[in-house]
Amino acid sequence: MDLSKSLEEIGKYFNEILGYLLPGLTLVVIIIFFLDPDQIPDKESFLNSNVLLLILLSYVIGYVVYGISLTKERIIKNIKFIKNDDKIIKQKISAQEDFRLSKQKLKALIPEMDMEKLTFNDIRNFAMAYVPEVDQKIYTFMFRSDLFKHTKDIFLFVSIWGFLSYISNKFININLFFRTNDINIYLIMILFILTFPLNEGKKRFLMIAYKIQFNIFLAKTFPLKNENK
Questions:
Q1: Parts of the chain with a pLDDT under 50
Q2: In a domain, 228, yes or no
């Protein structure tokens, strides 16, 4: 078996585990930090004595975070006044020259195909089929984009929970298991502010992941001519 392919597969499995573990661990640690010690008195002992359980719990919660992110994206798609980053990025790429040239080249390679009936994802998949060597690069950029997205969603979730806890505790005297002193409120505000640069990072890597196969596809199907010949 090819050693390089084996290492590549190991790297994929490692990223797969890391992609769920990191968001889950982030959410668990942040929630434990903000939980009211009067309501959850043994949280420090839990962290110190159950490291393996914490890791396993974080990995499972990572799947929950992923599912919540997917649900949020589906809801956003149906709300007209909220911008859909995925749709906007695809529209930007569709208006660029490399995408137009890729469509022309695919039409020349497969004359029977009606390009006008294909979606962005269809054209992207056809281009990727001609450059399978780019799969790992796309996976890497999608992995980074997902990490930014999940971290942003975690910060947003904790911020909303924190603000609701502060309001409920201040006005109706109901505790939502969240510490609502002034310092924590400032920290919650920082988490909320950080969702904006995190979203920019998500869009940056998503743009690269959606676009890179068209550049490589064109470079492969339009090779440079040797002027010495």
A1: 1, 226-229
A2: no
